[in-house]
């Protein structure tokens, strides 16, 4: 533990309605939660009465629900200033604008700090206490750009686990058909575009781990990321896997998000991308497989056997037209699910409550067997313990239990979402939108309280963000012009892949023109 400047206060939450989401799924209509040293020291009816030590603060929580804070299991903070910027695009065209292949300049410094902070504050306001950030750096990562992100999370007061999401191969090699579709000069420009080697990136990982892993009293942590298996060299991929094993770090990996990626696996490796990772010997229980939409039964079995967690991002999937993840098949195979918003330009908010509701609704399209539709209780677990598992913190995060991290959301049960209160779990998934959150507590520290972030001056931060936006918009517009020039080739590639028969369908085919 380095850097532990924030000694958390002790706190008593008195007479709350308590939903633990622990193994026994305990719930009390009236109970206390005692917090000391950032952890839950006791909970239950009258647990705080005659507490032997002095407590710094008491929150009288009559009429409030105390529950574990939500965990945003998949997120890319570098998109934080891009909400509402893009029309509907499929992933491959979207990424042209999001991470332009010919981008120059850099994103280190104050902009990266402010950008990260804006997202962290939006999450804290909604009772999201932890985030798993697969942070990309345009065009290349640096110690400064990593530090800017980590420092923002440190100052915001949220729990954050952060990876460095950098591909290390030439843009057109990540896709099928593209090398043939692109004019020679565009290919040459892509070859010349800034790109970091596996060694350079692993050196940056060493910095991330030494400087930040376990910092802020354990609130900050490192994860690894290969972005996606087709976007990195096998050497670098193996190096990341070794790091993940050595430090027991979560491994972020986007797999089979789109039909095009299913086609790519066949074209480039002669197999599914799940099987490709498995055959490299790298599929393991530290991997959080992101999206997993265009997977087949054999893939599901490989994921289950390896012990992977799957991060489900249904709002992002709908925004990009990626298709519907086979939710129940994954659950039936025993694969744990966590939920993520993905980034601000594919969700246009960081509203994890809305993600859970979308998950509850989306999979009704998959089957008329209503018993297979996602149930509120399993979605609440995905929002909390699923995310904890993906973070390698299954036993100490995502539930209210003695010894667990004191990460809580306190919700007003007198809000519209719970009026009248008929079924707490169902209303948490189907009615709540984050608007009932009154307090957000991370590691025992009250970071959001009655409409106000306590850790920083939010108004000043937003003013600074607006001042930085004009320069940032210019950067986006420049990148947008490049992307527009390349878009026709990407369009051709995406449509060509869409027309292939891959032996499965994850779209509502009847709605599509062939
Ligand atoms: Zn993602």
The gist of it:
The protein has 514 residues and is of the alpha/beta class. It has 18 helices and 18 strands. Strands 1, 2, 3, 4, 5, 15, 16, 17 and 18 form a 9-stranded mixed beta sheet that branches. A 5-stranded parallel beta sheet has the order 10-11-12-13-14. It has a 4-stranded parallel beta sheet with strand order 6-7-8-9, sandwiched between helices.
Structure description:
- The chain is α/β, with parallel strands linked by helices and 514 residues long.
- It has 18 helices and 18 strands.
- Strands 1, 2, 3, 4, 5, 15, 16, 17 and 18 form a 9-stranded mixed beta sheet that branches.
- β16 and β17 form a beta hairpin.
- α1 packs across α18, α2 packs parallel to α3 and α16 crosses α17.
- The longest helix is centred in the last third of the chain and has 41 residues.
- The N terminus is likely disordered.
- Zinc ion (ZN) binds next to loops.
What's the rounded overall pLDDT mean? 95
Which quaternary structure do these chains form?
A: single chain
Find the count of extended strands (DSSP E, 2+ residues): 18
Strand residues, percent:
15-25%
* Helix count, DSSP H or I runs of 4 or more residues: 18
Rg, Cα atoms, Å? 22 Å
Principal-axes geometry comes out as globular
Low-confidence stretches: 1-5
- Ligands bound here? zinc ion
Give the helices and strands, then pairings.
Blueprint: E1 11-19, E2 27-36, E3 39-44, E4 57-60, E5 64-68, E6 70-75, H1 91-98, H2 110-125, E7 128-135, H3 143-156, E8 159-164, H4 178-181, H5 184-192, H6 198-212, H7 215-218, E9 220-222, E10 224-227, H8 234-247, E11 251-255, H9 259-269, H10 273-279, E12 287-291, H11 297-306, E13 309-312, H12 314-319, H13 327-332, E14 337-339, H14 344-347, H15 352-362, H16 376-390, E15 408-412, H17 424-430, E16 437-442, E17 445-449, E18 452-453, H18 458-498
Parallel strand pairs: 1-4, 1-5, 6-7, 7-8, 8-9, 10-11, 11-12, 12-13, 13-14
Antiparallel strand pairs: 1-2, 2-3, 5-15, 15-16, 16-17, 17-18
Helix pairs in contact: 1-18, 2-3, 2-18, 3-6, 6-8, 9-18, 15-16, 16-17
The site of zinc ion has 6 residues, from loops.
